[in-house]
Amino acid sequence: MSLNGKTAIITGSNSGIGLGIAREMAKAGANVVLNSFTDTKDDHALAQEITDVTGVTARYIKADMSKGDECRALIEKAGACDILINNAGIQHVAGIDEFPAEKWDAIIAINLSSAFHTTAAALPLMRKAGWGRVINIASAHGLTASPYKSAYVAAKHGIVGMTKVVALETAEEPITANAICPGYVLTPLVEEQIPDTMKKYDMDRDTAVREVLLTRQPSKEFATVEQLGGTAVFLASDAAAQITGTTISVDGGWTAL
């Protein structure tokens, strides 16, 4: 599943799932563009590390995914976009009647609207190149719901719906659009939550993970960023040329319930 010569742009990719996907894309031969809203030495060092390890060209481009003009500028600055991976996202938990309006607006902007703007800017480049892949990182919450996550669930359902629209609009072209729907993924952010969960419920690590964090994930195992990256590489490959407009769940059986 070689992606040699392709350019992959991954939004929200200086940590966690996005960085894991970027690394797997690079291992498959794709040049990668990392992104976040910061612009630090560490951000650029991540890109250099990927270049040093894999030999591809890796760059970091700052863009705030809450701002539509910066989303579009990211694609323009990259200059090429064969593979677009819309991954940027934030979360807030509260009941609807207590959900801060500004948090709702931010989650919809970053988790949903950003993908509209980047896709709109990327499709002309894909059409010019005669090939393209749009891969949206949705969530199990794009297929089902949980209480107190109204904005996140709404945004992720929206991402799944928009994925289908893009797939239909490009169905007769060599461009595909699909969504990956992860369950709970072992990221540095999740790792940081485990000690607090252990303390709160007076449990050892394994019990806290199985009975609290992974209560809705039947496998009782986290997905890994490498697994998500491998799924994205597959969707970008020629083997997936006739897979479009669908979702792939990487959730340990969550949505099978």
Automatic annotation (TrEMBL):
Family annotation (SUPFAM superfamilies): NAD(P)-binding Rossmann-fold domains
Look up keyword Zinc and say if it applies.
no
Pfam families the record matches = adh_short
Q: Does the keyword Oxidoreductase apply?
A: yes
Listed EC numbers: 1.1.1.30
Gene Ontology molecular function: any one: 3-hydroxybutyrate dehydrogenase activity
Keyword vocabulary terms for this entry = Oxidoreductase
User: Which InterPro entries does the protein's record reference?
Assistant: 3-OHbutyrate_DH (IPR011294), NAD(P)-bd_dom_sf (IPR036291), Sc_DH/Rdtase_CS (IPR020904), SDR (IPR050259), SDR_fam (IPR002347)
Q: What family does the database annotate?
A: Belongs to the short-chain dehydrogenases/reductases (SDR) family.
Identification of the protein by name = 3-hydroxybutyrate dehydrogenase
Organism for this UniProt entry: Parasulfitobacter algicola
